[in-house]
Design brief:
Layout lengths: L15 E4 L5 E5 L2 H5 L4 H4 L8 E3 L4 H10 L3 H22 L10 H30 L8
Antiparallel strand pairs: 1-2, 2-3
Length: about 140
């Protein structure tokens, strides 16, 4: 098991650990004695209690793993395609995908299908118009 410690920029280790009711680590607290005469205090905290408290997210380990993954080439390759998908999802939300207009799963699913069809049809029309604009007009013989 990993040690549950927190080190400040000055190299001091937090003396106090605070736990939630579920028993999960919630925060590290440095004592006033540790932070009182520290030269890095102004960079470290603006607390009126003259000490630093570092709150720990319940999913901190997963967040750190995700941040490390974001620095890999695999992530950068996947992310280069992701923006296209997010842009289409945003467009579908503008057409009403976020809020169901009907009651019942079947009708809500139909609404989602209709919105997706609309967005796809709009894209098809745009591509067709671009293709027509690129082609030269046929010569009229007569």
């Amino acid at each position: 098991m990993e040690s549950e410690t927190c080190q400040c920029p000055a190299g001091k280790i937090a003396e106090e650990k605070r736990y939630s009711r579920a028993g999960k680590l919630k925060a590290f607290a440095f004592s006033e004695k540790q932070c009182g005469n520290c030269s890095l205090k102004t960079e470290c905290t603006q607390s009126k209690q003259n000490r630093r408290i570092v709150t720990v997210h319940p999913y901190e380990k997963q967040l750190q793993a995700a941040r490390a993954f974001q620095k890999t080439e695999e992530f950068k390759e996947a992310y280069s395609v992701r923006y296209k998908i997010e842009r289409k999802q945003s467009e579908m939300v503008r057409y009403g995908l976020r809020k169901a207009r009907y009651i019942g799963q079947a009708k809500v699913k139909l609404q989602a299908y209709l919105i997706a069809t609309l967005v796809n049809f709009k894209r098809l029309c745009k591509l067709t118009m671009e293709q027509i604009a690129k082609e030269p007009l046929p010569a009229i013989i007569g």
